[in-house]
Amino acid sequence: MHEEPIDPFAGDPADPSADLDDNGADDPLTAAERQDVLEDLADLEIYQALLTAIGVRGLVIECEDCHEPHYFDWDLLRGNLKHLLTSGRPRVHEPAFDPDPDHYVTWEYARGYADGVHDALASATDDNDG
């Protein structure tokens, strides 16, 4: 007796889930990849702190697999990055259901916004010192 349902595609070369096998799942991130993810997590904290105040709920990322925009709120994106750190592979994803694109920005926009705030603060500090 089986405790789990029998796989109806077991041994079938046309198994639709064949691409979901572990294919490298045990391969850890390289040091450079790990550093990139850690930097993304640090950047995400800054972006959230700055952008939530103006109504931004998260980031939009163009999916390389399906070529569709994927909308991630801050916590979901943070969770996905942490999962990548621990597992070495991204989570399976689906596009958000009916998100309001006006509440999401790209990584590039968030980076530019943060850089602009940094530059404005640095300029204000320079003006006060002089």
Topology:
Layout: H1 31-51, E1 58-62, E2 69-73, H2 74-87, E3 104-105, H3 107-129
Helix pairs in contact: 1-2, 1-3
Tell me briefly what this model is.
The chain has 130 residues and is mainly α.
Task: Please describe what this structure looks like.
By secondary structure, the protein is mainly α. It is built from 3 helices and 3 strands. It has a 3-stranded mixed β-sheet. A hairpin with a 6-residue loop joins strand 1 and strand 2. Helix 1 packs antiparallel against helix 2 and helix 1 crosses helix 3. The model has no long low-confidence stretch (mean pLDDT 84).
Shape: elongated
Give me the side-by-side strand order of the main sheet. Answer: 2-1-3
Q: Count every beta strand, where a strand is a DSSP E run of 2 or more residues.
A: 3
Regarding quaternary structure, how should these chains be classified?
single chain
The separation of the N and C termini measures 82 Å
Share of residues in helices: 40-55%
Helix-strand string: HEEHEH
The biggest beta sheet is recorded as: 3 strands, mixed
Poorly predicted segments: none
Q: Please state the structural category.
A: mainly alpha
Mean pLDDT: 84
Organism: Dactylosporangium fulvum
Protein name: DUF5319 domain-containing protein
Pfam families: DUF5319
Region (Disordered): 1-32
